[in-house]
Amino acid sequence: MIFLNVNNFFSLLLLVSAFTLLYLGYFSWKRNKRYVSISLLPVLIYAFGYSFEILCTSLAKVKFWIKVEYLGISFLPVVWLIFALNFTGYKEKLKKSTLILLYIIPATTLILNYTNDFHHLFYKKLTMNNTGIFPIVEIVKGPWYWVNIGYTYSIMLIGLIVLMLAYSKAVSIIKKQLLFIIVAWIIPWISDIVYMLGFINFHIDLCPLTFSISGIISSFAILRFRLLKLTPIALEKVFSNMLDGVIILDSENNIVDFNNSSKGIISELNHLESCGKKIDEVLMENKEVLNAINSPSCNESLISIRNKDELKYYKMNINNIYEKNDAAIGKILILNDVSEEKKNEEKISKLLKLKEAMLKISYSFNEISNINDFLQFILDEVINCIDERICGSILFLGQDKNLKIVASKGYDLEKIKAFTLKLENHFAWESSGENITKTVIINDLDKMESISILDTVEGEKIKSCTSSPIIIDGELYGFLNIDSIYNNYFSEGDLELMEYMSNQVSIAIAKHKLYEEIIYLSRYDKLTNVYNRSSFQNIVDNIYNDDSSKKDFVLAVMDVNDLKIINDNYGHLAGDELIKRFAKGLKGLAKDADIIGRFGGDEFVGVFFNIDVQNLTNRFEELIKLFKKNPIIFEDYKFVCSYSYGLANSATDGIKFDQLIKIADKRMYKYKNIVKSKKVLTNSNV
Fold first, then answer.
1. CA-to-CA distance for 194 and 191, rounded, in angstroms?
2. What does the DSSP assignment read for 505-571?
3. Are the C-beta atoms of residues 49 and 73 closer than 8 Å to each other?
4. Confidence class of residue 230 from pLDDT cuts 50, 70 and 90?
5. 25: which of 40, 184, 208, 439 fits an S-S bond (Cβ 3.0–4.6 Å)?
6. What is the model's pTM?
């Protein structure tokens, strides 16, 4: 009864193993993993045949079931090698011709086993041993039996090496799967060695039994870890070659694994010698990422990471990893680069802000009279639209071909005043030469030793700059510069923005210049650049109304002599030259507080402060002498600028301005008559 119970127990275990392998084969086939099903088939046959062999008591029946077993045993090593190659992703390296050669010995083994009674190359002798706990066959092994054993061990060893290599390269999330397969691979092999070397007292082949254990282990690996989804090499390739960064954490936020892309995103991972370090320690400088990871409610967030001075944006998805009992065992962080999308959004946002800013600027150009104040207003608005943290400047090109900063943000004002730059030393000149029409981006400005640029007010180096030329009426007027302390701050997408900004700035400056010109012409005489009559009158009225301390002055009325004669004889351009020469001389003898105006064609009026009549008379006479010494040469003509004048003192001649004008005008004509009489005497003497 005892040997029957042992027989039945071993037989039952082997049958359970066979049906387990059958189930796994069906499970694998349904999931399109046929190589797994095929690898289980020889084991199933082996276990099934041996389960009946150990129940047999006659040699004939034992021989029959041995032949059944060898339908599986013969091909088992090759089929399992193919399984290992398929599972690890190395199958492509196995040529069809090599595969055919691998099957030669298994096929020969099967044939020799089936025909052993004729040659005894496989078994020299088979006998029944009834002295043990149950009847079992005694085998005297033939030469081919050992060939088969050697071949089987060799092929299985190659398969084990393949699995071990895959394990060494595999990402951590599938190493457990591979470890289970390796263990399942080794167990039957060890049991076969134990059986072959006779380390147990009873002669029973444990290999089919250990294959039942392998079946259970494989089943656990398949069902628990779902290793049939992807091969390790394929998964390793997917994991390593993903464009998205992937970081795997355990339940305590220790880094379990990360792929190559994540190292390109988070530079700290490049210096991580091994996994297992807490991510809080690795990313201690990046609080934004850590806050997202440690937030219990956050599963998706937009983060920014600066790597090599380049700011990039990533959408970070945080997915918890759960066991079957819903216990969280870790997290998977997936970092998707959305920098281009973010930059496009920012670009649109900047454009909208810029349009609003430019509209604001267009409404303000007639409210800000000083051009430098207006340029500073433009620069502030532009920078606020882009990034309040960056620096910038507007440079104007002087007649000496030197650039000077007329508006700035983020720089020391004292250094700004002293800064000049030759046009040919500007990096736009190096890129385009004299024909400067395009925006230039320099993202490694700190490496260009030949470029002269100021440090920020905090003393930081400018590392990136984009510069757009300001073109007005087809001529280079200056540059709009936007600067950053970071390398690679500006991209090609910023070119369009800068082109738009510089065009709008050019238009705004042109409008302001036109407005200034209109304002200037409304106040000044275009030919002489002194006040026109209405503007002069307004200034005098203000003096009378607002500032009593300036009511003591000397009023001068002046008239250019012989203007009509010059116009008639030499042309009106010569007459204009006469008027301009006189106005220039008149402005030369006036002080800053004095007021000069043109009342008509050849009539001028001046208000002179802090001077008496005699001293002012001396000045006018000196000017007359200066004109005589320096005659006007116009084309082929030569003539002297001559004028008459009359003075009235507000302190002695009257307070009202109209009254003073009449007195000074009367004295001017008296002076003119004296000049004319002198000319008559001179001509008669001649």
1. 5
2. HHHHHHHHHHHHHHHHHHHB-TTT-SB-HHHHHHHHHHHHHH-GGG--EEEEEEEETTHHHHHHHH-
3. no
4. very low
5. 40
6. 0.44
